[in-house]
Amino acid sequence: MKKYIIMFFSNLIAFSVMAQHGEINAVEMADALRTSGKIYVVVLVVTVILTGLILYLIRLDKKVSRLEKEVSNKVKFEAR
Amino acid sequence: MAKLTFDFKKNWWKLIAVILVFYTVIGGFLIKVPRIAIVQESVRNQFFHVSMWFSMMILLTTSLLFSIRYLAKSKMKYDGIAEEFAYMGIILGILGLATGSIWARFTWGAWWVNDAKLNGAAICMLIYLAYVILRNSIEDEIQRARISAVYNIFAWSTLLPLLYILPRLTDSLHPGSGGNPGFNIYDLDNNLRLVFYPSIIGWTLLGIWIIQLRVRVKEIKSKLEDIS
């Protein structure tokens, strides 16, 4: 597991290095955005939104687990 | 507040879903992509728009398998699972249509063009929306399960010709159809693959997580109905 986490972050670093070395070519790309570093603002914003959504999903998951426990207790109680 | 415990054995795939989706978003914005005229940076939509459709296909196929299983075993549980897989697939399909429309506006110049691929995808979504309507219009549980399972098989079999065969038989703007093979993009750059494949798995697993929650809620409901 630890290995994968390290791999994940080293990939991120690799990506950011690659991003900074975009060569100037005939095709117009968001080079200026990247050299000024502002693309990271967008990445950060999207990451925050995604984090929020996933935390919400985790909370929902916990709630369902609790309900499951309650219901199975109730079923046991009724069976007695 | 419930204690924040993480059952690794049971929930490892949810962790993978989260990691892959974050990888998609962060990597998808930051990797170097091939420089293609007109498409430009929007080629990164590959990780979001295209993977929506791939994930949709996986989820709808799973839904089909559960429908067949229901017809074979007549267990209501399978019908419920097939339903949730189909709903999530439809959501991803609608997101695919919406994102595709935006992409079309900025590369082809119009929100919608009368293209075999686009119209086929729209027809598919309508066919699957009919599945939702069909389910909600039948009162009797067993009848609903049976009819919608059969309809699901029909709906799934329209997917292949409408999305993959017919668009290839005509001229089309859309990559992956009529003399316009979508995977040609990979000849230019292998970097895209690095994020594209994980993104498909990530979005699919995230969808399955939501499906699992809905199926569990359904099971709680049926248990409560049993004891009352």
Q: Compute the average pLDDT of chain A.
A: 75
* Count of individual domains of chain A: 2
- Count of helical stretches of chain B: 7
> How many discrete domains of chain B?
1
Proportion of beta-strand residues of chain A = under 5%
Return residue spans of chain B where pLDDT drops below 50 for at least 5 consecutive residues. Answer: none
Structural class of chain B: mainly alpha
Distance between the termini of chain A: 44 Å
What's the total number of strands of chain B?
Answer: 0
Order of helices and strands of chain A: HHH
Largest contact between chains: A-B, 37 and 32 residues
Percent helix among the residues of chain B?
Answer: over 70%
What is the chain-wise order of helices and strands of chain B? HHHHHHH
What characterizes the major β-sheet of chain B? none
Our Rg estimate of chain B from Cα atoms comes to 20 Å
Mean pLDDT of chain B, to the nearest integer, reads 89
Straight-line distance between termini of chain B: 28 Å
Describe the 3D structure.
- The complex is a heterodimer of chains A (80) and B (228).
- With 80 residues, chain A is an all-alpha fold.
- Chain A folds into 2 domains: 1-37; 39-80.
- Chain A is built from 3 helices and no strands.
- The longest helix of chain A is centred in the C-terminal third of the chain and has 41 residues, at 39-79.
- The relative contact order of chain A is 0.05.
- The mean pLDDT of chain A is 75.
- By secondary structure, chain B is mainly alpha-helical.
- Chain B has one domain.
- Chain B has 7 helices and no strands.
- Chain B has helices at 8-30, 49-73, 76-107, 116-137, 141-169, 185-188, 191-227.
- In chain B, helix 2 (49-73) runs parallel beside helix 7, helix 3 (76-107) packs antiparallel against helix 7 (191-227) and helix 4 (116-137) packs antiparallel against helix 5.
- The radius of gyration of chain B is 20 Å and the shape is globular.
- Chain B starts with 7 loop residues before the first helix and ends with a helix.
- Chains A and B meet through helix 1 and helix 3 of A and helix 1 and helix 7 of B.
